# Entry
Amino acid sequence: MADRILAKSNSKNYGRLSIISSWKMNIEKIIDINPSSFFPSPKIKSSLLVFKPKDKFYKIDNPKNLEHVTNIFFHQRRKMIKKPLKFLFNNYEKVAEELSLDLNLRPQNLNNLTYYKICSYYEKLLS
# Structure
């Protein structure tokens, strides 16, 4: 779970959890904890993470919108982003052009900031 929270774009573990958790928080891995430190000992290693609030973060009106957008994109993570953009926007080609998105990329290739921008664009259409 810690690896998924800390994952960066273009990695196997990168997904909704990485994007949403790093939106308002700086996350740092402190230490890995061996299973022998617990009783009964689990079958996996644990990690201690520290979450510190960010002073400045991207303005999104409703966090539920970020959850919705990332859910649409990562529902079929191996598909190209053209499909989820079509689902979210009638004018998806205009959105892709304004945000400088390559429609041949996959969801894990977009960085966090790109998802925040897509979410803001989505919120503009809702209002």
In short: The mean pLDDT is 95. The beta strands are 25-33, 46-53.
